[in-house]
Amino acid sequence: MWGANVAATFEQILNDSKTAEEIQGELFANFSKATLNISGHAKLENIAQINSQNCALKISFSGDVLIEDIPRTPDDVFRIFQKVPLMLRELNNGKGQQLEFELYPLKRIASNFKRELQIQRIIKDIDIHVMNRIEDTFEQIIKGKRILNDFLDKIEPWRDWLPPHWLQVVDNKRLELAGKQLEIQRRLASLLEKIRRGEAEQNEMIVLLDEFDEKNPCSVLLIKKFLKENSRIEIKIDSLGEFDDSIKEKQPNADLLLKRLESISDIVDQYYVYDVYLLHISSAWQENVKDRENWRRQLRCFNNLRKSTLSNESKKTIFRVIDHDLHTNLTDKPSTCVIYHVKHGEIKTKDYCHTSLIELSLEQIQKIQSETKCSSFTKADIQKRFQEFIKKHPIGELNEKDFTAEFHELFPCLANNSYLCVAFLPLMPTPLRSCSININPNATWIEHGLTVAGGSQYGNQMNK
């Protein structure tokens, strides 16, 4: 057979990586429609629509004929092919040259098409359950990241008051998850692509998904486990929030909480002429069942003492919280939660809460006398009643049952719920037997933060 061998090859090079990614994504989107029929038409259209500024077209032309023009586009090549019969007239008297053929087994040709045929079949056959699990895995990655970010957001305002080695664990976990998230996403995408090309089995994906749920740190299960293992951070934040008097979201009270402390003596020397109260705290004491009750009692004592001094502007008082989880270098560390009382460079007591229950100070006695002006209590009477009270209630606190018993003992002629009568006793013009108060209808008072008129239903009820 006579004729001419003519061949042309085309190579398209994309200069813009973004464009390449867009085309890859468009092609992937078309091939990802597992339940629809697939064709190559989209690929041809997408390539045809590429902006010429973002790509370069390389054409190689070879053959037994000489061409006059250099082809620049596929259309130029097609026009040259149309002219090949005319060019043969000038070659070997119009016969061209003898052609050589290479026989190629049909089985090998079929194998070249096998991959593409498998793509179409496997895309349709991927189990919908596996696809749902893949989607759920990506959702877990997003949810897990959100959970950790919420935890980090809660930590952020408190960073200066949290132990650095605690924070280091969390920061390391954040960096680890960032790398693991990218790794698992790539593995899932790569394996999914291999399955669709027929290079991997679906069971490999199932194994990978099972491993993610149980072993991958990005899973919601393991992130929650990590947060539980480091729950001491949230417990610490809640504990430090006890010193913020605001009702809304708690913030660090920088007036009480110390960021840096080299020695307790630094505070003692700095506030030499002040009454200084130092509350010592540690997570170990709060978490210990035996120390937990003392922890709460010391905290109440400290906060009550602090609030009681706010109204006394003449008294020079300083309150500070020493966190031994943060200030690990301190040598004078108590064995449990306590309050140090310091004045004139000397530690008066290392457990103010306990000491205050032994004997009332002169200042406390004077305050009691000022609040009971209508009574005839002397200092000795107050101390005697205090000692009797502490003997029955060693921790100095009353629950509702204890209060009712004490009230009934002091006023045996009154019902247990008649505290109001005792509160207004100095104003009563009649003996205690009437337990009645006449309130002028024009009078007003504050009740639950609201101004209440005496003649209202509340005032009338009080008269009753």
Structural commentary:
- This protein is α+β, with helices and mostly antiparallel strands and 464 residues long.
- Among the domains are: 72 residues, no CATH class; 102 residues, no CATH class; 103 residues, Glutaredoxin (3-Layer(aba) Sandwich), CATH 3.40.30.
- Helices cover 52% and strands 12% of the residues.
- The protein is built from 18 helices and ten strands.
- It has a four-stranded mixed beta sheet. It has a two-stranded antiparallel ribbon with strand order 1-4. Strands 2-3 form a two-stranded antiparallel sheet.
- The longest helix has 34 residues.
- It is rod-shaped, with a radius of gyration of 43 Å.
- The C terminus is likely disordered.
Distance between the termini: 127 Å
The major β-sheet equals: 4 strands, mixed
Nearest-angstrom radius of gyration? 43 Å
In which order are the strands of the major sheet placed?
6-5-7-8
The CATH topology label of the domain at 253-355 is: Glutaredoxin
Structural class: alpha+beta
Strand content: 5-15%
Overall mean pLDDT: 74
Shape, per Cα inertia axes:
rod-shaped
Q: What's the β-strand tally?
A: 10
Q: In CATH, what is the class of the domain at 253-355?
A: Alpha Beta
CATH architecture label name of the domain at 253-355: 3-Layer(aba) Sandwich
Low-confidence stretches: 29-53, 115-124, 431-437, 445-464
SS element count, helices = 18
